[in-house]
Design goal:
Blueprint: H1 2-17, H2 19-38, H3 56-84, H4 87-93, H5 98-119, E1 135-143, E2 146-154, E3 160-166, H6 168-183, H7 192-205, H8 209-214
Antiparallel strand pairs: 1-2, 2-3
Helix pairs in contact: 1-2, 3-5
């Protein structure tokens, strides 16, 4: 409940009473939590014996295995009837289906995590010894919005001298503009407010980090 309503309430409070006051209120709220914990008089039962305790790793693996089974069933549907009905192609081409595509990716991640846990073998040592040295490295990481390219230059002291990051949002910018140009003519007859909402929907379907991180997105339509 708090995870769902909390961010919205926090944003409202920041707008009404400013961020510093909101943070102060949040800090004071912890005192009520402490008072509530102190008021508990129920004696906590003793922990389970080792025979009764379940391996945390095994519990996680079982949960992920269940998710993997759901993923396999969904994959069969998408690669079978889904492609026969055009759903598979629609997921690849219709940006408004991005939530469905991300749901499939989430289930795929569960399946991958289950495989990793089942084949995991603890290493001989928890870490490898290392020494600071200069160097340059670049990598591409798969992120929710696409590929994240990053490059780092390290100094003799092991500190980062230069860093360059190319986020997916900047790579998607051209596609967003292209989709807007293609989509706009089909909704121009709508009332101004609904037209604005539909175009903003398209932009947010790409989940651009600039709009959700800074809340800067303010679409304005000029009619001539």
């Amino acid at each position: 409940m708090a995870g769902v309503a909390g961010p919205g309430i926090a944003g409202l409070l920041v707008g009404l009473i400013t961020a510093p006051v909101t943070l102060s209120v949040d800090a004071v709220s912890y005192l009520f939590s402490v008072a509530g914990l102190i008021s508990i008089r129920t004696v906590e039962p003793p922990p389970d014996t080792p025979e009764q305790q379940v391996s945390i790793r095994r519990s996680i693996a079982e949960g992920l295995r269940a998710g993997a089974e759901v993923y396999a069933a969904l994959k069969r549907r998408l690669t079978g009837a889904g492609f026969a009905t055009g759903l598979g192609d629609e997921l690849r081409t219709n940006v408004f289906r991005s939530i469905v595509a991300r749901s499939v990716e989430l289930l795929h991640a569960l399946a991958e995590a289950s495989d990793i846990l089942e084949t995991y073998r603890p290493p001989a040592a928890p870490l490898e010894p290392w020494a600071a040295r200069p160097g340059i490295a670049a990598w591409a990481t798969e992120a929710p919005r696409g590929l994240l390219f990053h490059r780092y230059e390290m100094g003799d002291d092991g500190l980062v001298r230069n860093a360059q990051i190319v986020p997916p949002t900047s790579q998607n910018q051209a596609a967003i503009e292209h989709d807007l140009a293609q989509f706009a003519p089909s909704v121009l007859s709508l009332p101004h407010a609904e037209l604005t909402h539909r175009l903003e929907q398209l932009i947010r379907s790409y989940d651009p980090c600039i709009s959700c991180a800074t809340h800067f997105l303010d679409l304005r339509i000029e009619e001539h």
